[in-house]
Amino acid sequence: MNPSIKKLAEIAQKEERIIIGLMSGTSLDGLDIALCRISGSGEHTRVFPDKFITKPYKPETRSQLKNISSVGSVEMAELCRQHTWLAGLHAELILEALSEWGVRPQEVDCIASHGQTVYHLPSRDQHHPYEKPNSTLQIADGDHIAVKTGILTISDFRQKHTAAGSEGAPMAGLVDHLLFTDESETRILLNIGGIGNFTLVPSKNNPDQKYCTTDTGPGNTLIDKLCQELLNIPYDENARIAATGNINEKLLQVMHSDSWFDSRESKTTGPEYFSMEWLSEKCNDASIDMNSTKPEDIIRTATELSSQTIAASISSCLKGQKAAIYVSGGGAHNPLMMERITSLLGDCTVQNFSELGMDPDAKEAVIFAVLANEMLAGEGFIMRGLDASEKKMNFGKISFPE
């Protein structure tokens, strides 16, 4: 038997697999590393996140990534270089974390690498005359991670998602049903990163309730960009800035009127669409000079937009039914946003995702560890597409360390 195939068979037959899940989001603040013990597959999956750490990026790393992420054009040489360079950095951070935890690389069965998204381009956001397939691009070459760590690596999860006909996001819904379905409680698993997204997980005793997963629009992305552009700070910590501002109702109305919010179907987006250019256009439409308006007012208005659009999307999906909402992502640490979402969704309880027994900051890294487990030990994951169709598929590209 081919040694590589033999290695995969050995991993698949284990009662328990040790898998590292990686996640680096649009905030560009660092690499999330989750060391997980996973048994079973499909509906029998059991996950035990033993260790979790975020390895922060240096300022120069954040600057490098920012220059090639969600921008209209980039030098191809720089993009090519960073694809390889970032993989080397991720490998170093993984080995550093393993050393700190007292875990040898040989004990790890697999690394599940999300990579760094540099551009997300669903067909609805494209304006080209030729064919417009759903497209997404992540960097940090899985082959280099595998060779540098000596650990089998699975990567390119989102590319497989688009190849199967979906938009490459949100990915969380594919795992939420496996890990967090409850007998009697209908749940909304809300993640507020740069973009907001959620999964509706019907309870087992309500089989007629429809599954739903979608992006909601901006989460933290506009708030963070305003803080960086107007105040030269990375983000609005604890909503201290927004809390001192006033909502500009005219600007809020103009932002709400964007056609992206019109459709209630499942959809995805990214900071490429909800950008500073987008915000500048809305300010012009509202006859507002961003430079002469108090920064705290603009930031408060952006916070309100995120809160209202998240609540509206959840309400549309629930169709009057009640649910328990569990929140993860950076937005979970924004008390003003949490207060507004709770107020707008008065019939639902809003809680931190930690109530489900998992570190909310680790969730996305754990998700990719589970997807890798399905790749290695499952029979093909049931992918519920954005068009509500279902198909069996596997995830990702396998890179061997040899």
**How much of the polypeptide forms β-strand, as a percent range?**
15-25%
Query: So, CATH architecture of the largest domain?
Result: 2-Layer Sandwich
Structurally, the number of domains stands at: 2
Radius of gyration: 21 Å
Q: What shape does the CA trace take?
A: globular
| Number of DSSP-assigned strands | 14
Give the helices and strands as they follow along the chain: HEEEHHEEHEHHEEEHHHHEHEHEEE
Relevant CATH superfamily of the largest domain:
ATPase, nucleotide binding domain
Low-confidence stretches: 381-393
Q: What is the C-level CATH assignment of the largest domain?
A: Alpha Beta
Q: Helix fraction? A: 25-40%
Helix-strand category: alpha/beta
At CATH level 3, the topology of the largest domain is Nucleotidyltransferase, domain 5
Sheet with the most strands? 7 strands, mixed
Q: What's the overall average pLDDT, rounded?
A: 89
User: End-to-end distance, in Å?
Assistant: 16 Å
